[in-house]
Amino acid sequence: MFVKINVASFLIALFVVLTEGRNVIERFDEDYEDSIGTKWAVLVAGSKEWYNYRHQANLCHAYQLLKKGGLKDEHIIVFMYDDIANNPENPRPGVIINNPHGHDVYKGVPKDYTGKDCNAQNFYSVILGNKSALTGGSGKVVNSGPNDYIFIYYTDHGAPGLVGMPEDPPVYAIDLNEVLKKKHASRTYKKMVFYLEACDSGSMFADLLDEGLNIYATTSSKPDEDGWATYCYFTGDTSCYGECPPKDFKDNCLGDLFSVSWLENRYIHKRVLNNGTHGSHMMQYGDLHINKDALSIYMGSNSPKHTSSANNNNASNSRHVNQRDVQLLYLISKFQNAPEGSRRKNEAYRKLSEVISEREHVDKSVKHIGQILFGVENGQKVLNIVRQPLVDDWHCLKSFVKIFESHCGSLTSYGKKHIRGFANMCNAGIQRDQMDAAAKQTCGYMSCLSITEKRRFKR
Ligand SMILES: *[C@@H]1O[C@H](CO)[C@@H](O)[C@H](O)[C@H]1NC(C)=O
Ligand SMILES: *[C@@H]1O[C@H](CO)[C@@H](O)[C@H](O)[C@H]1NC(C)=O
Ligand SMILES: *[C@@H]1O[C@H](CO)[C@@H](O)[C@H](O)[C@H]1NC(C)=O
User: Fold this and answer.
1) Which of these, 52, 139, 215, 378, has the minimum number of CB atoms within 10 Å of its CB?
2) Alpha-carbon span 376 to 32, nearest angstrom
3) Which residues belong to any copy of the Legumain prodomain domain (predicted)?
4) From the CA of 130, how far away is ligand 1's center (Å)?
5) pLDDT higher than threshold 70 for residue 4
6) Which residues on neighbouring strands pair with residue 43, listed in sequence order?
């Protein structure tokens, strides 16, 4: 360490050692380390639409924390669809909150990559600092040097081996890890910390993130575990989920369990686990020793003080909502709240039945394809096999998703939970033409109709 410091600093350090002892010199080292590198942050909310309020709320909250901690706007790069603050359904126009008692977290958030520019390709290009590969957006990239620290935070829906973006394609685990390897090869950071909240989020790194890249990743869930939304209230329900949002917020959730836990400075592991019910197991991957670093190195002086102390006995046990169910609860409430016989009621009914039948359609189609490929007995068993990494041939997985969608329509955010099934088809050696035939046989005559026609046809 001292070799890098000039003589004056060395003397100061020595003085500090002599006068105040070891703790101070350690702190001195840390501050010194801290001061030579720039702190960068990339924040991503991968969803859009009102019922996904919470993801952009988490993101905005994270921005405020970093900004208050001293990170500069030119070093914080934000990916958000930006359809929440000014959404016609927002009871507080222009404002986003992330906690029942929270203030606006939207003000000042940079709008780097919004709308269709909030996409997977731009996310990769921003991490890699490759301006020429960007489409749209502010042009801000992680233009980092070898002494810099990078914090990446992602919040949204996920599925085995991928996390969503407002518009397809999603972020596939293999692509993200390739990007991280490339970033490491370019020697343009010192250490990186990645926080990721989504269903099945462990599958983004399990057996994929190599050690030695100086990257520490923590996820909200195991590779095959759901994520949880919190601070929700849905009309017709007897109580809230987590704490009640303010009265003007109905039929929605303000945050997600892992995100609000790390942002609010709480006993994060315990709170996320929630005593094993309506909770998930936080996971860590990559270079675990980085976990010992002070978070302030990455998040600035306002960083949360987490403790993962396993021996506190605050086993909370509150209700939270499975991330995948929020849309349905929102639509059911909309239907219940609309006046009897009104146009709004009909519209809500139509939308609700549409989403339910879409879900049924995806569930049944995947199951049926599995039965064609592996037999009625074995189909479900093969599709549900859990292994890490999810799949060996990621091209196969991506092409099976495309083949499915070409015959059966969009997989949808909900339907992505079946990705594991497609992965297992690849793992079992199913060929593209077999998959094509099975999907065609399953969704058959509908394949030449547009999605809207398909919906009409089904009704
Ligand atoms: C940046 O992206 C462009 C376009 O995708 C690509 O051709 C180029 O090789 C990339 N540059 C680097 C340094 O990776
Ligand atoms: C338990 O929870 C209480 C109230 O939230 C908090 O004040 C206390 O510090 C917690 N203790 C531990 C050991 O987690
Ligand atoms: C936590 O779970 C254990 C075992 O399931 C149960 O006995 C205990 O009552 C739970 N604690 C709370 C606070 O719900």
Assistant:
1) 139
2) 64
3) 351-443
4) 6
5) no
6) 78, 153
For the whole model, what pTM was predicted?
0.85
**Fold annotation for 338-458:** Topoisomerase I; Chain A, domain 4 (1.10.132)
Q: Return the best residue to mutate from 311, 313, 314 for the ligand 2 pocket (most ligand atoms within 8 A of CB).
A: 314
**Domain spans, the chain:** 1-36, 37-299, 338-458
Is residue 144's pLDDT more than 80?
Answer: yes
Q: Where are the alpha helices (DSSP H) in 163-295?
A: 173-185, 257-263, 268-273
Active site includes 157? yes
∠ Cα 385 275 266 (to 5°): 115
Tell me, in angstroms, the distance from the centre of ligand 3 to residue 323's CA: 23
The finding on whether 384 has its CB within 6 A of some atom of ligand 2 is: no
SS3 138: coil
Would you identify the CATH topology of the domain 37-299?
Answer: Rossmann fold (3.40.50)
**How far, in Å, CA of 12 to CA of 30, rounded?**
15
DSSP readout, 291-325? GGS-THHHH-TT-------TT---------EEGGG
| Cα(328)–Cα(345) distance, integer angstroms | 15
Residue nearest atom 13 in ligand 2 by C-alpha distance: 312
Of the residues 118, 199, 232, 443, which is catalytic? 199
Residues 262 and 304 sit within 8 Å (Cβ to Cβ): yes
Q: Where are the alpha helices (DSSP H) in 291-431?
A: 296-299, 326-337, 343-374, 379-383, 394-408, 412-415, 419-427
Q: Does 8 have pLDDT greater than 70?
A: no
pLDDT single digits (tens) 187-231: 999 999 999 999 999 999 999 999 999 999 999 999 999 999 999
Q: Which helix (H) or strand (E) holds 32?
A: helix 22-36
Domains 37-299 and 338-458 share a fold: no
Q: To 10 degrees, the CA torsion angle through 388, 390, 395, 396?
A: 120
* Mean pLDDT value of segment 442-448: 68
Ligand 3 pocket test target in 267, 270, 271, 275 with most atoms within 8 Å of CB: 275
